[in-house]
Amino acid sequence: MDYIQGLADQTEIFLYALGFGFLLGILYDVFRTLRMIISESKGFIFFMDVLYFAVCTFMIFCFILVVDSGRIRAYVALGIVLGWIVYYFSFGAIAMRVSSAVTRFFRNAFSALFKPFKLLLKGFLKKTRKIADFCKKNIRKSDKKAKFNLQKYRSIVYNLLGYTEKRKNDEKRN
Question: Are 161 and 167 within 8 A, CB to CB?
């Protein structure tokens, strides 16, 4: 086992790291395209970014373990970062245009596919809204009626407590 790496070994590992960073850039575009297709909400974007970083962390750990026997070196980290940057500013721009087209295609396809279901759901919700409003109105009426019926009888505890509190307040004012 060599404890000191030669320049040739370091250069080879650096080039592997550049290629690995390039692959991580491709993985980022896959995550970005999935994120654009599924949802554009801030919470989902945060979740996908955290998932991307977790996957990248595990993959970088495995890469360093395999390529450099688990030794963390600055030139390996620099190679990974440079590979990612080279991808992002070269092929990443092209991939962004392609992913926008893919996103539009999938959204249009899903929209056309689910349009009949959407119309059925809209009609169903309209009917249930009418029923819910009717039930809400009747519940309010019965609630008022129950309250009125309770107030008719003075011997009920509910009314006695209210009556005694009202009487005490009147005595305090006088």
Answer: no
Helices (H) and strands (E) in the chain, counts: 5, 0
Which residues does 19 contact at the CB level (< 8 Å), separation at least 6?
A: 83
In contact, 21 and 80? CB cutoff 8 Å: yes
The domain spans of the chain are 7-89, 127-173
Tokens of 13: 């590992």
Q: Which residue pairs, CB below 8 angstroms and at least 24 apart, start in 30-39?
A: 32/96, 32/99, 33/99, 33/102, 33/103, 36/99, 36/100, 36/103, 37/102, 37/103, 37/106, 37/107
Q: Are 3 and 66 in contact (CB under 8 A)?
A: no
pLDDT per residue of the chain (174 residues) written in tens, 0 to 9: 556 678 888 899 999 999 999 999 999 999 988 888 888 889 999 999 999 999 999 999 999 999 988 888 899 999 999 999 999 999 988 888 888 888 888 888 888 888 888 888 888 888 888 888 888 888 887 777 766 665 555 555 555 555 556 666 666 766
* Cβ atoms of 76 and 14 closer than 8 Å: yes
